[in-house]
């Protein structure tokens, strides 16, 4: 795969992450312009994540079945059209539906990115490609804050928040055309069948967790939210049992449980989930601190993330050669750097409160992002190291599902911790205190990644 073709492919990863995070900075504008309630705002933000996470494994399987390039182009085209629908929404209900469509189409195109890298890039060049995949993923998330804030503040042609969705339309159209002409179309030795029952079970399990977490806090945690989350356990168990049964009888399950027999894939899933739980929640809660707590507008809040975009890119690009030379110890060092930076951020907010200088936020955030850039591509590459090309779509879908599911869980759970601790005794909201707690929880998640990395290193050294 040429460098230009890889750039076209990674456009999808950038766009998918961009749209996951960009709505955070648009929330105040959506509340005013569309008269959106708190519940509607949570569905606008979380609906995309839900549909995305619920469809990723199926999207990966469809790529294995019909071919990765075709699914990529179809998903990219659908994503551009769904983005157009978002920009034309005149009420919160329409925007929620359009965001769900964005999530579904993203689930069709994004598993094909890693699948094409695994299936077409030679093993010797694969770490470099996955490194750039990490760059696109991280920069998309940060650009959602920076570029999103700029578009809203500039109010291009009076479009306001609609510009954050319209920008996807020409980019998606051009990327779809170039992808059809340039991306390779690897031939597979076998074409797996579909598993409708498994797809329904997986989607229902994800819905039973993410929907209550998305709307539960604003609704006061009614009984149905707890019933749904409790019901996710038997749903997951039944879906897993069905997958095992299909495997034993020679069928084609949606989620090939034999992938979990690989220690590298299994530990990689857990490490990626822990990292993305931290990453998603950190971006969300820091945005709340900057805008609601410190009074910055969307553009000012976005600028705080700009240095983080630079350091993330540097970390991701430097991490690959360092990983080749020093091995998994580089991931451990990156995790420790991120954890230390989060500790510094929490300490600065604890001592400074609402008078904390922005430098005490910008510098630790940039250092944490440097660590993130080192860690994320390495975690992705480690999880997929033993995956054969014929199972690339399925493995990519499973990994992306774990990442997005964890990111949404992080936003919901640590976001809830943020709001609970923000409520001060005198009835106002103390956002620096809330961010101190959230950063401490994120620090614990990064330490989980460090511990898993250390255990992986020790296991590799055992005879």
Which segments are poorly predicted (pLDDT under 50) over 5 or more consecutive residues? none
Name of the CATH architecture: Up-down Bundle
What is the average per-residue confidence, as pLDDT, rounded to a whole number? 83
Give the beta-strand count.
Answer: 0
Name the shape in a single word. globular
Radius of gyration: 21 Å
Give the strand content. under 5%
CATH superfamily: MFS general substrate transporter like domains
Number of helical regions = 16
Alpha carbon gap, first and last residue: 37 Å
| Global structural class | mainly alpha
CATH class: Mainly Alpha
As a percent range, the share of helical residues equals: over 70%
- The overall number of domains is 1
CATH topology: Growth Hormone, Chain: A
Biggest sheet architecture: none
Order of helices and strands: HHHHHHHHHHHHHHHH
Can you put this structure into words, describing what you see?
This protein is mostly helical and 463 residues long. The chain has a single domain, classed as Up-down Bundle (Growth Hormone, Chain: A), CATH 1.20.1250.20. The chain has helices spanning 3-33, 38-66, 68-87, 92-109, 111-120, 126-154, 163-166, 168-182, 196-215, 223-248, 263-293, 298-326, 329-352, 359-383, 392-422, 431-461. Helix 13 runs antiparallel to helix 16 (431-461).
Characteristics:
single chain; mainly alpha; Growth Hormone, Chain: A; 0% strand
What is the strand and helix layout of this fold?
Elements: H1 3-33, H2 38-66, H3 68-87, H4 92-109, H5 111-120, H6 126-154, H7 163-166, H8 168-182, H9 196-215, H10 223-248, H11 263-293, H12 298-326, H13 329-352, H14 359-383, H15 392-422, H16 431-461
Helix pairs in contact: 1-2, 1-6, 1-8, 2-3, 2-4, 2-9, 2-15, 3-4, 3-5, 3-8, 5-15, 6-12, 6-14, 9-10, 9-15, 11-14, 11-15, 11-16, 12-14, 13-14, 13-16, 15-16
